[in-house]
Amino acid sequence: MDAAAMLLPSLRDELSLHPGPASLDGSPTWTIRDPVRNRYFRIGWAAFEALSRWGGTAGEVAEAVRAETTIDMSDEEVMDVAKFVRGNQLTQANSHADTLRLSEQAAAEKHSLFNWLLHHYLFFRIPLVRPDRFLGGLLPLVSWLGSVWFRWATLGALALGLILVARQWDVFSTTLVDTLSVSGMVSYGIALSLVKVIHELAHGLSAKRFGCRVPTMGLAFLVMWPVLYTDVNETWTLASRRQRLLVGSAGILAELSVAAWATLLWAFLPEGALRQGVFVLAAFTWVSSLVINLSPFMRFDGYFLAMDALELPNLHPRAFAMARWWLREALFDLGKPAPEAMDKWRTHAMVAFAFAVWIYRLALFLGIAVLVYHFFIKAVGALLFAVEIGWFVFLPIWNEVKQWAKRRGDILKGTRWRRPLIGLGLALLVAIIPWRTRIEAPASIAAEIVAPLFLPAPARSEAVLVERGQHVTTGMPLLTFIAPDIDARRAITSARLAGKAAELEAVKLDPFGRERLSALTEELSRLRSEKAALDAEAERLTVTAPHAGLFLDPLPDLKPGAWLSPKQQLGLIRADGVPIATAYLAEDDLERIKEGDEARFIPHSLDHAGMAGKVLSIDRNPVKVLADPALASLHGGDIPVRAAGQALVPQGGFFRVTIRLDGPAPDIKLIGHAIISGQGQSLIGRAARSALVVLVREWGA
Fold it and tell me: Per its UniProt record, what PANTHER family does this chain match (predicted)?
């Protein structure tokens, strides 16, 4: 049957038509409202004229449009409108074929419980109340929040609050760091719920202000965290772009107002729980409004504001379609027309926006996948991780590749396809060839032996016999000290020893004193032992070099006459010998190195040059506690750690590698990187090994 002679389907009686905003070319638009499904459809001038004369056959409608308007509408264009209304379920089911078609659409949209949970556990909605009457009664009570004087007062509070925060920035930043804890995260969660209540009420009240109905309000679960949501879809019937923008931005404006007043209150409130709560509210609201809600990359307020501001409904699908078309043309030069007619500048902007959304979503979904994996048990976490990566990352790529396969005839007709093929081949070569031989690991370097110098007891400095940086030999006197207490005890002991010796000689000549001979001999032996101990203690007050090396880091107060404690380090002797670097190698690279491999230490300090050397030893067990805090991430290092009491526990597998370096040891400890020339590894090999390491570690294989 001729398409022009086919009867058009009847439209549903409950549909309503509302004037819409002008399109980009200035032509009028209209919005079809479906109250049953709470959905809205934007149509152009030609479709409106066709629907205004709907009935009969496509040929009759097209002829009526051509006769009564300036639009030259063809029969095929009328059939396109019929396909649109039928596909979006805007027609009545008057025949068995219509019933079958609706049944097929319902079956296609229906998912099993498992399938629904699999794709909606990160975000789903639960309608709770019908707030339209409540919002209508609340609106007169809070209308002053939208007045001009309140807006100016909020701007003043914002300016003053930012000035006061800038003057207390150290306190503000310190408080922010202090809230990055478990209790702080709970506080931010509470602030999220409170701010979202205000956010959604602002949307609903602004919609009521412009005469729109707000059918539902309920809970939306975002990554299993409950937040409020409000249905303001009826704002699509507003013809005024300004009104739609005000409704769309009401939530963000409300959040920013909360942030402005909370920031000002924080600057004036005294220390305490109230000030801490106000800080959490301000800090979180600034982040949620400026970073999350204003982002056009996800379907948040920023996305809908961008659509209204640019008059580009369905911005994401249209941008994605334009980007896919551009990609196919750039790769294969198919010569196909763009999905929709746009000027060159807008086309490039849509393509750039689509690629930005794809990159943003790739990073977001990878992060969500990792988050899901770690927050669920291993089996469920691994399954959900695979679902996230497969559904949101690999499936869109696979669908695009299938489209290329369908167009392979057109692709092979030209020669442009050779360029991406050559590029893909080069990329595979780069990924397969094991050209990566450099292995980098955080490291530190110190002398092979360092001996600190201490006093045996409190003493007074008598002489300094060595200078900083002077080379000393084993046993060489370095510092001499005097301890008056020890000298006095030595003098007393010597006097008592002389007295007892004389008494012993006298007893030996006295025939009646022989019974005292044994006691005097024992006492004399004790005094001699005591004197020897005091002499040895006095000798220890002369500090000597324990081994050959350099005398470094002398105590600043080390001068004759100064009293010093045994707890004070007098200096240190760095032994003669080659310097040793200690590197911490990631588990993925452990099998790529062996003892004797060439290595080089590159210090972070620009005052010291790099040093070459060789791998001396490799630990086969990962370090449990990081012995060098300077390499920890908590102190600006490259090794991620977590604090366990006073210990720093590395996050992941890190293995200690000892490197013997050439040349003299540095005067001070150095922090840097060790670059080891190990076995070559390809990018694909590294990725596969990393995956296997994770599997072995997480599953205990």
Answer: MEMBRANE-BOUND TRANSCRIPTION FACTOR SITE-2 PROTEASE, PROTEASE M50 MEMBRANE-BOUND TRANSCRIPTION FACTOR SITE 2 PROTEASE
